[in-house]
Design goal:
Belongs to the ABC transporter superfamily. The protein is an alpha/beta fold and 263 residues long. It contains ten helices and twelve strands. A six-stranded mixed sheet has the order 6-7-8-3-9-10, with helices on both faces. Strands 2-1-4-5 form a four-stranded antiparallel sheet, covered by helices on one side. The protein starts with a strand and ends with a helix. Bound molecules: adenosine-5'-triphosphate.
Length: 263
């Protein structure tokens, strides 16, 4: 369990996150949604120990995060930040193996190499193994970085917009793999997504942030409504449900301006 209690994050006069209380369970995929600039990245950075807590506490399986315990705290976390640059003179396979090196203090075994190759194969990117990462496309780099965090075998997985550069097939591949491994390995996974339908399809729990505050928390079928989405994004939408009761969101266009109709 990840327990976030009364969490407030401030930088100078700016409040990024205010009075957040959440309990996130092992084996569940939590997806954070919310408008731009509403505190999603700041929350992930704070959970990774990159942004100091102004107020409140965070505990992972009972262990509190403290400034002194940050190195060991981070060892249990797979963190994939937004827009990571990969201007390295390393192959894709070497970048994936780095996920293990951080844990094993620079010693590498055949098992580690085998696990890295397996991760590349599971994500259908084994053909990229020997390619220098600086020659890869944005989407290929994102898949390689995902393979790297998988290799950490984290207790807590923090992914900031992990599918932002991916085509439809790779979005589904990454999310399916994340959901499956989260349940199988008992990870606590937290991913930021902007695509509400992808969030609805894969989240066990949605964390809805608006203005740095928790607006809603729960399974997508309970949380997603046209009223909530309109309140958050100021865009008219319909929320429908498929035959399994899973919600999906359709944006509605305002009527075209009169001058277009007359042209
Ligand atoms: N280091 C910083 N210094 C000053 N302001 C910051 C800093 N980091 C974030 N902010 C501000 O905090 C607010 C929340 O930013 P954050 O990146 O957490 O939002 P977000 O919800 O992840 O946005 P997006 O969807 O655009 O990625 C924004 O107003 C941002 O400008």
């Amino acid at each position: 369990m990840l327990e976030i209690s009364d969490l407030t994050l401030r930088i100078g006069d700016l409040t990024l996150v205010q009075g957040l209380n959440l309990q996130l369970s092992a084996g569940q995929l939590h997806v954070i949604i919310g408008p731009n600039g509403t505190g999603k990245t700041s929350l992930l950075r704070a959970l990774f120990g990159e942004l100091p807590l102004t107020q409140g506490s965070v505990r992972l399986h009972g262990t509190p995060m403290t400034p002194h315990s940050l190195p060991s705290w981070r060892q249990g976390i797979g963190y994939m930040p937004q827009n990571t640059q990969l201007d390295l003179d390393l192959s894709a396979l070497e970048v994936v193996v780095l996920g293990r090196l951080q844990r094993l203090s620079m010693r590498l075994s055949d098992d580690d190499l085998g696990a890295a190759l397996e991760a590349l194969q599971a994500l259908d990117i084994a053909h990229l193994a020997d390619r220098p990462v600086h020659t890869l496309s944005g989407g290929q780099r994102q898949m390689v970085l995902f393979a790297q965090v998988l290799l950490r075998q984290p207790k807590l997985m923090l992914l900031d917009e992990p599918v932002s550069a991916l085509d439809l097939k790779h979005q589904m591949q990454l999310m399916e793999h994340l959901q499956m491994q989260t349940a199988a390995q008992g990870w606590i996974s937290v991913a930021v997504l902007h695509d509400l339908n992808l969030a609805a399809q894969f989240a066990d729990q949605l964390i809805v942030l608006g203005d740095g505050r928790l607006q809603a928390f729960g399974p997508p079928a309970q949380v997603l409504s046209s009223e909530l989405i309109h309140h958050l994004y100021h865009v008219p939408v319909d929320v429908h449900h498929d035959q399994d009761g899973q919600p999906y969101v359709r944006t509605l266009r305002a009527s075209p301006p009169r001058e277009y109709l007359m042209a």
